[in-house]
Amino acid sequence: MRYGKLIVFCILLACVLLIGCTQSSVSSAPQPSDLVVTGKPVMEHTSVEIVLSTKAPATAVPTAEPSPTPVPEPSRVTIGAVGDIMATQGLISAAEVSNGYDFSPVLGQIAPLWADVDIMCANLETVLGGVSTDYSQGTGTGIQTFSAPDELIGNLRGAGFTVLTTANNHCMDRGLEGAIRTIEVLRKEGIVQTGTYVSGEDRKPCIVECNGIKVGILASTSRINERTKYISTAEELTHVNKLFDGQRQVTAELISDVDSLREAGAEYIILFAHWDKEYQDKPEKETRALAYDLIAAGVDCILGSHPHVVQEFEYITVERADGKYTGLVCYSMGNFIANESDTATYGMFVKLTLEKDYSGKVALCDLSYAPTCIFRSASGGYEIHPALPNMPTTTMFLEETDRINTLKLRAYDHVTKICRNSEVAHVMEDYAK
Questions:
Q1: Domain residue extents for the chain
Q2: What is the distance between the alpha carbons of residues 219 and 120, in angstroms, rounded to a whole number?
C-alpha cells in the first residue's frame, strides 16, 4: 500500500515535469520578428494603373503682360518745285534737231537733283499753241509771247516733272484756243495741271496723293497780258484762276477753291502764286499782306514766281477758326528755264518734306533749297546747273567748264545771301558732299 502511494506520486511528478518542459520549448521558439532573411526579398506583386495627364502641373504661372498697341510709323512725302519755265526764241532754236525739238540736254545736269522727290512741280510760263500759231516771238510792242513745241512737255516729264501749273501772265499768249490746247497736251502726256481750265465744269479740286498723304495743288496769277493781240474777250479770262480782284483782295473763287480742296480730303494745300513785281529781290508790302490773307484763308504753303529773280522765305503765323497756324511762303523761286541775264539767270530748287503722324495730322517737317543757274554757251546752247560749289561740274561744254564754275559760285552766293535763314530753310550743302 505504501509502495502503491509512492508509485502514484512518482507518476504525478513525471507528468508535471513533462508539461513544464513542453511550455518552455514553446516559449523559447523564435518569433517572426527575430528571423534574419538572407538573399533577395520576395516582393508581393500588385496591379498598378498608369495615367498620363495633359494638365499643367499645379504650380503658379505668371500672367503675361498685354502687348502695347503698336504705333504706326509716320508717313512722308517730298515735294520739289522750281520757278518759271519760259520757252524763249533762243531756247527753242537751240533745241531744234533734224526731226523736231529736243530740250533734254538743257535739263540733263539738273534733273539728278530731284531724283528722290515724290512730286516735282514747276510753273509753265508758255503755251503749247501748235505749229500753226508759230512759236515764241516778239509782238513789236516790247512784249514777247511764248509758245513752245509739244516736245518740251515730254522732255520735262522725262526729267521727272509730274505737276505743271499754267496760271501766269502768258497763259493766253495764243488766245483761249491755245490755252485749252496746252491743257490737253499736258493731260495727254500724263502731267497733272491746274490754274487754267477748259470750262467752268473743269474747275475741280486738284489733289495729288502719295504715300497716303493728299496734297492739294492750286495755281493763280495776279495778271494776264491783255495787251497781246490774242486776247479779245473778257470771257476768255474766266478760264484763268485770278489771284485777287479789282480791290486787290483774294478772289472769292480762290477762297472757294481752298474750301473745296479741304472738303475733297486735301491734308496740305500748296498755292503756286504768280505775283509781285519783276526783277525785284524783295517782295512788295502788298504781296506780304496778300500772303497773310491766303494763309489765313487755308493755304498752307505759297510758292511764288513771276519776278524772275529769287526772293526770300518767310513763315507767317495767322489765326484760323481752329486756332493759330504757321504757313510757309517762298515769295519767288526765280527763273528755271529762260534766256535772260545777270541775277535773272539764277533760280532755286525748293524741297518740302511733309509728314503725317500717328494721329493723322500732316505738317511740314523739313525745308531745303539748292540754288540753280542757267548757262548759255558761246555756241548758243543751254544747260541748267545746280549751283552747289562742292558738287562736281559735268557738262557737254567741256571747254567752258571754268565759266560754268564761276557762274555757279555767283549764283550760290547771291541766292544764299537772300535766302539763308537757318530757322526757315537750309541750303542743300549735304547733297553736294
A1: 75-432
A2: 15
**pLDDT value at 21 more than 70:** no
Closest CA to 81 of 213, 208, 178: 208
CB 205 within 8 Å of CB 253: no
pLDDT digits (tens, 9 = 90+) for 206-252: 999 999 999 999 999 999 987 777 776 777 888 999 999 877 899 99
Tell me the whole-structure pTM to 2 decimals.
Answer: 0.82
Question: Of 7-16, 25-34, 258-267, which range is least confident?
Answer: 25-34
- pLDDT of residue 47 exceeding 60: no
* Residue whose C-alpha cell is 505668371: 62
Q: Which 3-state string (H, E, C) describes the chain?
A: CHHHHHHHHHHHHHHHHHHHHHHHHHHCCCCHHHCCCCCCCCCCCCCCCCCCCCCCCCCCCCCCCCCCCCCCCCEEEEEEEEEEECCCHHHHHHCEECCEECCHHHHCCCHHHHCCCCEEEEEECCECCCHHHCCCEECCCCCEECECCCHHHHHHHHCCCCEEECCCCCCCCCHHHHHHHHHHHHHHCCCEEECECCCHHHCCCCEEEECCEEEEEEEEECCCCCCCCCCCCHHHHCCECECECCCCCECHHHHHHHHHHHHCCCCEEEEEEECCCCCCCCCCHHHHHHHHHHHHCCCCEEEEECCCCECCEEEEEEEECCEEEEEEEECCEEEEECCCCHHHHEEEEEEEEEEECCCCCEEEEEEEEEEEEEEECCCCCEEEEECCCCCCCCCCCHHHHHHHHHHHHHHHHHHHHHHCECCCEEECHHHHC
CATH topology of domain 75-432: Purple Acid Phosphatase; chain A, domain 2 (3.60.21)
Write down the pLDDT at residue 39.
34
- Residue 110 — pLDDT band, cuts 50, 70, 90? very high
Spell out a b/e string for 105-116, using b for 16 or more CB atoms within 10 Å of the CB, else e. Answer: ebbbbbbebbee
> How many CA atoms, within 13 angstroms, populate the side-chain half-sphere of residue 143?
12
Per-residue cell: 96: 531744234
Residue keyed to cell 491746274? 194
- Report the mean per-residue pLDDT for the chain: 85
Mean pLDDT, to the nearest integer, of 344-366? 95
